[in-house]
Amino acid sequence: MSDPLLRVRDLRTHFRVKRGFPNPETVTVRALDEISFEVKRGEAFGLVGESGCGKSTAGRSILRLVEPDSGSIEFDGEDVLRADKARMRALRRRLQIIFQDPYSSLNPRMRIGTALAEPLLVHGIMGKAEAAERVRDLLVEVGLPRDAGIRFPHEFSGGQRQRLGIARALTLNPELIIADEPVSALDVSIQSQILMLLRNLQETHDLSFIFISHDLGVVRYFCQVMAVMYLGRIVEKGPIPRIFDEPLHPYTVMLRDASPVPDPTARKAFERIEGEVPSAINPPSGCHFHPRCKHATELCRKVYPKWMEVDAQRGVACHLYDPASGMSPKP
Ligand code: SF4
Q1: CA of 286 to the centre of ligand 1 (A)
Q2: Burial 38-69 (b: 16+ CB within 10 A, else e)
Q3: pLDDT at residue 326, rounded to an integer
């Protein structure tokens, strides 16, 4: 089996923020707490959880758009956190991101053709004429007219803008794309089109994805492997069919039951999830999920559960998982 393309180990990102008025105090937001996972070449890896679980921070930490406090990130054997500016620039050619709102990252005064050609020129990959031709090819590849480059961002619909975001991510021929809620702002019919486009591109370019989403239906459609995050930590990880057929963590059960069908057009996730995600500034003692867990025991309230490898593909962090039987209690 080939080595993973990306290896994340014990990654921790905390933010120090000021809170309160008129005498603000500095508090720590534990956005990401020692998460570990791997992504293989050509694999789509889903990071799933409710808002505030740390999944977007994970994506930004991998790209060093925010600086992690500790842990390691290895991309194709290279230590990302030790990369200097020049190495990071080279790595960013191979690691790209698609945002939920591509409009916010497009310069409204710049024609799309110019915006898409910019990275090719900045990295000195090709000259102006060749870059313009490459942009036209990219536009067609993402399902836009070949001459769409003469238009400005406001002239495109929401779905078309996401196609532009995808085109921009593809410009430098990356190997791994971090897609951060790429379809959650779109109508359901457009969602399906964008997901199909991403899947085609994954196959054509042998791309790997980290697909960040709060919607299990979308992740089930697009990914092969997933990790479920809760309050900055991964609580369960494994191949999609096994997680859906036999979830081991009570939170995964809750998420799955809130999104029981794989068709992302059929319903929205989290309709029936009860309770709120606690604050990452002051997480609950012990297992952070215990205030919402109907299986919680005294031990759960006091001690955070250890991560247990179920087998080479799966792992879970829950006191009630029984390694002898390989089972967790049924909800
Ligand atoms: Fe629930 Fe306890 Fe498992 Fe946490 S450790 S998910 S509280 S059973």
Answers
A1: 9
A2: bbbebbbbbbbbbebbbbbbbbbbbbbebebe
A3: 65
